Amino acid sequence: MASMAEQLAANINFSAFSKATELKKRLWFALGCLIVYRFGTYIPLPGIDPVVMSQIFQQNAGGIMGMFNMFSGGALERMSIFALGILPHISASIIMQLMTAVSPTIEQLKKEGEVGRKKINQYTRYLTVVLAAFQGYGLSVGLEAMTGSSGSAVLVALGEARDWATGSSLTIR
Question: CA–CA distance from 108 to each of 119, 122, 129, 142 (Å)?
């Protein structure tokens, strides 16, 4: 008796897939974005001492930093430009959804159809950059206060906040 997965695998028609050019383009684009993102998680921020950062993360592995590092795919521990990932965009999207219930102007935009949706998406992207700057600055200040056995790992908080905000804004589009 074949399982459902085995039956589906036996009935796959790759010739239909080869004809779906739009699907192939989208899959290649998604794969390319994933590769660029994974490479970006290995580009470190300037002014970071990786030895001290690894010591800090070993000391605080079970806490909130360990969980945030898990959500960033290890990018926070490596102090990469994509350490914030898409978390600021998710927060901005939630805030804009809540604002439609509070603000009559945004609610009116939502009812305008495609044009209103595009305007709300534009506001969401602007809010994403602002949130990424605040989150990057807060993360930099918080990490600057932490020290390893060799001293502080973060040298300039505003520079890292700018780099993280730039990296996060690159991940949303």
Answer: 11, 15, 24, 40
> Per 3-state DSSP, what percentage of the chain is helix, strand, and coil (rounded to 5)?
70, 5, 25
Could you please report the per-residue DSSP string of 48-90?
B-HHHHHHHHHHTTTSHHHHHHHHTTTTTTTTBTTSSTTHHHH
The pTM of the whole model exceeds 0.90 = no
> What is d(CA 132, CA 136) in angstroms, rounded to the nearest whole number?
6
Could you give the 3-state DSSP secondary structure of residue 61? coil
Please tell me the predicted confidence (pLDDT) of residue 4: 74
Answer positive or negative: Cα dihedral of 43, 47, 51, 53.
negative
CA-only gyration radius of the chain, Å: 21
Q: How far apart are the first and last CA of the chain?
A: 46
